[in-house]
Design a protein that fits this description.
3-stranded mixed beta sheet
Length: about 350
């Protein structure tokens, strides 16, 4: 591993040209996506054809990240239509035919979303995330991080028919059980980097402080200290590249959540900082965890220079030691054209290596 600060990515990667799987990132406007697109796609391709296509795309994605010098990579989420629905399709009683129109993310998004029609439990008798991770890790010696949506974010992106669950807290507890099964299997199989995606916490801080952070911690129950347990909280994807009027979550909420996140048992907390700068005194609120700091924006086509990244990191290091700082993009990379993506990541890696 090259010297300097550690680098990682957060989740998604652009799907290659001609890749047939429908993708939330590839519609003109994220609100135009519907799960029916993926339903129809599944009827048009065999399981074997799809698995072969995903493997080839994942292999390409992993090779690119390794070549760029990323220390902790992901599989690019090639099999996923988006980061939430992929997990929900593996649970009993999430209907992807009985959709509910939902306005969510504080009104920033509206979409027809899958609907809970009964008690949630795993669809398959054996854990399935571990199969995806093993297939990806087999393609490289570089550690592959796996990402899983957290309970608050799943609830915030789906619906419950006729209030099937008496409360969101009850709904969340069932999701915790499903997620924990997958995470424990991943840890048992040797996965060393597991990330829970919970951006909705920044939209609903009162819920996060009431039980959301506690439930996120419970998702990792039974996982040893040899696994880096990360929670990711960005301020929200826009609906398309270079959108200027998207209603982001209030980044000041990070201050409200910091102390509880720091004491919740996570090893790392992933925060957005490139799309909109934080007051870096925020980093002083974290006394224990590593901070994965977003240093390149994922929905802007403008490319951060090495010097810009370097200067921002220097400022961050006035508030947190280098031993607890990792550099990353703000969130997933699915919006970015490959030439822009490569330049952003190359500059991020170059800047990270300046801090030897």
């Amino acid at each position: 591993m090259a010297s300097g600060l550690t680098t990682t990515v957060i989740g998604s990667y652009p799907k290659p040209p001609g890749f047939p799987c429908p993708d939330w990132f590839r519609v003109a406007n994220g609100n135009d996506y519907t799960p029916k697109m993926y339903n129809d796609f599944c009827q048009s391709i065999t399981k074997e054809e799809f698995e072969h296509t995903v493997k080839q795309a994942t292999k390409e994605c992993i090779a690119e990240q390794v070549k760029l010098g990323i220390n902790i990579i992901t599989d690019g989420e090639m099999a996923r239509e988006n980061y939430v629905f992929h997990f929900c399709r593996k649970l009993k009683n999430y209907s992807f035919d009985n959709l509910t129109h939902k306005v969510y993310r504080n009104g920033a998004c509206h979409m027809d979303v899958p609907t809970v029609i009964g008690p949630l439990e795993p669809l398959e008798s054996e854990p399935w995330c571990v199969k995806e991770w093993l297939a990806s890790q087999a393609l490289t010696t570089t550690p592959v991080k796996i990402t899983i949506p957290g309970p608050m974010t799943i609830i915030g992106t789906t619906a419950s028919k006729n209030g099937y669950y008496k409360s969101d807290k009850d709904w969340s507890l069932d999701l915790v059980k499903c997620i924990n099964r997958e995470i424990r299997a991943l840890a048992d199989a040797g996965c060393k980097y597991i990330q829970l995606d919970e951006p909705v916490m920044v939209r609903q801080p009162s819920v996060a402080l009431d039980y959301g952070i506690d439930h996120a911690t419970q998702c990792f129950e039974g996982v040893g200290s040899d696994v880096e347990k990360t929670i990711h909280l960005c301020c929200g994807y826009p609906l398309y590249l270079d959108q200027v009027d998207y209603m982001k979550a209030d980044r000041q909420v990070y201050f409200d959540l910091a102390e509880k996140l720091d004491n919740a048992g996570f090893d790392a907390v992933s925060l957005e900082d490139a799309h909109q700068y934080n007051d870096l005194k925020l980093l002083e609120k974290f006394k224990k965890v590593k901070i994965i700091l977003g240093v390149v924006a994922i929905a802007k086509s403008s490319i951060e220079t090495v010097d810009e990244i370097k200067k921002r990191v220097q400022l961050a290091l006035e508030h947190i030691p280098a031993s607890r700082l990792t550099l990353a993009p703000d969130c997933g990379l699915g919006f970015l054209p490959k030439d822009i993506l490569h330049s952003k990541l190359e500059n991020m890696v170059t800047a990270a290596r300046l801090f030897a």
